[in-house]
Design brief:
Blueprint: H1 10-21, H2 27-34, H3 38-50, E1 70-78, H4 83-95, E2 99-104, E3 111-117, H5 120-131, E4 137-144
Antiparallel strand pairs: 1-3, 1-4, 2-3
Length: about 160
C-alpha cells in the first residue's frame, strides 16, 4: 500500500522543475532560486526525496562520445503471452546493456525497447542473435533513429 503523500504546493513544483534542469544545485542555489533559505530548500528537497517524488540523480552522457553511434527503437511481439514467458523475456532485457529502456505496450507490439549500439552490425547481432533467438519472441521490428529533434525533456509540472 502506498503511503499518503503531502500535497505539492507551487514551491514544491518550482523545486522539482529546478532539480530536473540541474540536479547538482546546492541548497544555497536552490534556496536563492525559490526565495527560501538554504536550510528550507534543503529540507524541502529531502522531503520530496523521502516521499518518492525524486527517485534519484543521474548524469546525462553523450552517446556519440561513448561510441554509441546507432540508436534504435525496437518493437517486439511475443509468440506466447504466459507469465513465465514474460518474466523470461524481462530477465533477458535486464542482461543487455544495449537496451537502455523497455516498456510493455498495448497494440500489436508487446514491448518497445530503446537501444544504443556502436554500429549497425551490433544492432543486427542484438536483433538476430539475442532477441529473435529468444523462445518467446515471434517478431521484431526496428526503427533506426536518424536524428533526435527534441532532447529528452523534464516532466511537465
Amino acid at each position: 500500500m502506498q503511503q499518503p503523500r503531502t500535497p505539492l504546493d507551487p514551491t514544491d513544483h518550482r523545486l522539482l522543475a529546478a532539480v530536473q534542469k540541474d540536479a547538482q544545485l546546492t541548497a544555497q542555489e536552490l534556496g536563492a532560486a525559490l526565495n527560501l533559505s538554504a536550510s528550507q530548500a534543503g529540507r524541502r528537497r529531502q522531503r520530496l526525496e523521502a516521499e518518492g517524488y525524486i527517485l534519484g540523480y543521474a548524469a546525462r552522457l553523450d552517446p556519440l562520445r561513448l561510441g554509441l553511434a546507432v540508436q534504435a527503437f525496437v518493437q517486439v511481439q511475443l509468440a506466447r503471452h504466459g507469465a513465465e514467458e514474460g518474466r523470461a523475456f524481462a530477465r533477458l532485457l535486464r542482461t543487455r546493456a544495449e537496451v537502455v529502456s523497455a516498456w510493455t505496450m498495448t497494440g500489436e507490439a508487446d514491448y518497445l525497447l530503446r537501444v544504443y549500439c556502436p554500429d549497425l552490425p551490433a544492432l543486427n547481432m542484438l536483433i538476430h542473435e539475442v532477441l529473435l533467438a529468444h523462445s518467446a519472441v515471434a517478431r521484431v521490428q526496428s526503427q533506426i533513429v536518424m536524428d533526435q529533434t527534441k532532447a529528452d525533456a523534464p516532466f511537465p509540472l
